[in-house]
Structures are given as C-alpha cells and as structure tokens.
Amino acid sequence: MRCDLNGRVVFVTGGAGGIGRATVKRLAENGAAVVVADIDAAGAEAVAASLPDALGLALDVRDPDAAERAVAATLARYGRLDVLVNNAGVNTFKDRVDIDAFPKEEWHRVVSIDLDGLYVVSRAAVQPMIRQGAGRIVNIASVVGVTAMRLQSAFVAAKAGVIHLTRSMALELGPKGILVNALAPGSVLTEGTKKLFYGDDGTFRAQMAAFLDHVPLGRPADVEEIAEAILFLAAPENSYMTGHLMMVDGGWTAGFMM
C-alpha cells in the first residue's frame, strides 16, 4: 500500500534487523523520517545511513535513561515524534524446557526486554505525542500471546502481556489523541528463526513440516509482509482503530487444520 507519511517522524525499536529493518525501510519509502533505535549501535547507524532522512541511535530498551536520551535526540533532530513502533524483542533459543526447569535468569532476560522494555520506551516516547495532541503506537506482540506454545514460557507470558497492555494504553491515551494497536505475527522468516526452524541446521527443523501443516498458507511470513501491516497501522487514513490486535499469521489462529 501507499500512504503519505511526509512530515511524520517514526521511532522504531529493534530497527537494525529482521522485522525492524524491513519496517523502517517501508515507512521511509512512504515519506517518513525514521529513527532506527537498536542495542546494536553500529547496525542502527548502518540502516539509517541507507535511508534518505533517518537517525540511527543506540538504545537498550531496558534502560529508562537511555530511552529518555533517545527521545530527546529525536526531538532535537526533527522537533516532533508521531509514531512509535515497539518492535524490539527476544525469544529463548537454547533453554527451551518446561516451566519447572525454565531458568529464572532467562525468564527475566526475555520479560525485561519484551514487556518491561515496551513500557520503558512508551513512557518516554508518549510525552511529545501528548503535547502534540496526536500520535500512534504499534506494539509488536505474537500469536503465542494468544495461542500458547510449549517450551518458551517467558516469551508467551511477555507477549500476552503486550496484548493486554496495548488495550490499557488505548483506553488511557485515546482521549489524548493517541491510537495504540498491537500486531501479532505468526512464524516469520528471520535470522533467528532460520537458526531455530528453517535453516539446514535449524535446532527444530525436523518439527517444522508438521507445524506448517497447521498454517493454512503453509509457509512463514517474510519480514516485508509484517512491515506492510505496520505501515497500515501507522497510516494517517487508519484513524478509528485503537486497542486492536491485528493477526498476521497465515491463518495459524483461524482454527485447526485437519
């Protein structure tokens, strides 16, 4: 789709790789000035350098002071902040075990980034939106926040929290002119999922054929397909949707494939 984002400033966390990189590219193609924020500072700067009007920033979403500095740098450069995409997130790769054996350190690592980090960045970024009387927030959740899967309890819990937090944010921020929605991708082809599922030496490659039998479209999403949905939620024309969870999952959650 095409929309007019000229004059809009978009802040994307986890913007240096995967869904984040595809998102900043797609939003920039539609005229937005983009802030690429990532814990990988060099990666953020490299992605920003490839776009016409972008700023690359180092950001650990767990750090409130860093979030405040990143928002201040955005305002210093552009004078406004219109759209926040809370995309930064991690999952468990090596410690995939049942809850009775799930390492507490891994639990805190995942939840601190995927849920706490979303709160930290949102709290900082929403301040200029409130002053402007307008803004958009897109929170990246997951289908496993709706339909749980085994062996990744921290990720499942964090993404379920993102979904309900989105609804709470929509209730609180709607009267201030800010729309808040969540997007729940299904399985997406990224460097991380290649290591787990889709690469020749993926840890769970043997299980993927059976898994994809339960996805009506029979394949993972490309990152560009997720970015397109984010563009829709950020588009000025999308002006009456808030508190919504958009599923982009190839039909995964539509029902059981027999």
TrEMBL record:
Record key words, sorted: Oxidoreductase
UniProt key word Oxidoreductase: yes
GO BP field: fatty acid biosynthetic process
InterPro entries: NAD(P)-bd_dom_sf, SDR_fam
GO MF term list: oxidoreductase activity, acting on the CH-OH group of donors, NAD or NADP as acceptor; quinone binding
PANTHER family, sorted: 3-OXOACYL-[ACYL-CARRIER-PROTEIN] REDUCTASE (PTHR42760:SF133), SHORT-CHAIN DEHYDROGENASES/REDUCTASES FAMILY MEMBER (PTHR42760)
Record-stated family: Belongs to the short-chain dehydrogenases/reductases (SDR) family.
UniProt protein name: NAD(P)-dependent dehydrogenase (Short-subunit alcohol dehydrogenase family)
UniProt source species: Prosthecomicrobium pneumaticum
